[in-house]
Amino acid sequence: MVSVAQRLEKCQRIGDTVARWGGDEFAILLEDIADKSDAIAIANRIQAALKPPILLDNQAIFVTASIGIVLGDIQIYNNPEHVTDLLRDADIAMYRAKSRAQEQCEVFDPSMHAYALKRLQLENDLRRAIAGIASSEEQTSEFSVFYQPIFSLTTQQIEGFEALVRWQHPEKGIISPIDFIAIAEETGLIVQLDRWVLKMACHQLSIWQKEFPDLAPLTISVNLSGKHFYQSGLIEFLDRILEETGLDGNSLKLEITESVVIENTEAATVLLDLLRERNLQVCLDDFGTGYSSLSYLHSFPFNVLKIDRSFIKQLGTEDEHDEIVRAIVNLGLILGMNVVAEGVETPEQVSQLKNLSCHSGQGYWFSKPMNSDAMTEFLLNNL
Ligand code: C2E
Ligand code: CA
Ligand code: CA
Fold first, then answer.
1. What pTM was computed for the model?
2. Whole-number percent of the chain with pLDDT over 90
3. Gap from CA of 223 to ligand 1 centroid (Å)
4. Whose CA is nearest to atom 30 of ligand 1?
């Protein structure tokens, strides 16, 4: 935060004000702006200033900023209500920038109010739906857990599943996790949701392990948001779930992304050790899309490396892409990790991945995610 603030200060002109707004948010007041192009030029300057990595404990950390711009009249600063409106509009533009891509800036326009209103509505609905899971059974909840199988590429046998949450909104129908997980994270609601998914998925796995002993030992992978990973009581919660379901620690795999570990390396080290003591497996999800830091990969005890589907999609298109996947698989092999390819959609991808000695695959080629009943059927057909 201090390094970011220093860089922001360097971008300001005489008369401008930079303030930390809370958390990872900053507010900058630019005076003497002729039109929006002046503000956009400064936003671009800020993004350029943030580009060089920040050194933290000898690690290079890359930060990006989403910037929302709102233009206002200097005369109104005497009116606190207008100031609140301006800040709200800047916030709305910032969220719009954030939802588009990294390193974006957006200038507020009134049509964004409709977007903000929609988002607020979704947040309220999410709050209500998550409150519902505490008091209801799985059948009556708006949420359900879908399962996508993960296959061994050597034996062609099913190894386990990834649990993926689904939200059946009473009016809007199915809403993709891509559209609500970020809101759940920002509001902290994710902890309750992730724990519910974890509980449902472990119960389901214990049923499948009993029903299909020949397929043993089936595993379940559950996504863990950063907010949830660092939430106190996680280890106790996991202990309780394992005890309730009678599952072995190594049947449960927790999927986290690199950014979660980098967010707080000290706490992550302690937590990963506690998970290892319990024999729980930790998967590095979406590998290749974030920092892809060799030193983190080496110093943290990840058991599984999941190659992001953007790399698998490009397999077979250009030699260079194939070489990248080969390098990632080899890296995983050298570090003794199980390597899983995500988003496998074609038989060509399966054979290429096999040739590269990738251990496992997950994707529409094998099966789309399905509810527990459909997955039971799938297992019966695959025996
Ligand atoms: P992810 O962890 O990378 O999950 C894999 C996503 O890829 C899933 O999308 C899955 O349906 C999709 N997928 C699987 N095979 C293929 C394929 O062959 N082709 C293509 N194009 N896509 C494929 P989904 O279910 O929409 O989930 C999106 C993301 O939402 C997940 O990405 C994960 O980051 C997050 N998510 C899902 N469930 C949970 C949850 O319970 N907790 C948390 N914290 N995050 C979750
Ligand atoms: Ca995942
Ligand atoms: Ca993934």
1. 0.84
2. 59
3. 9
4. 177
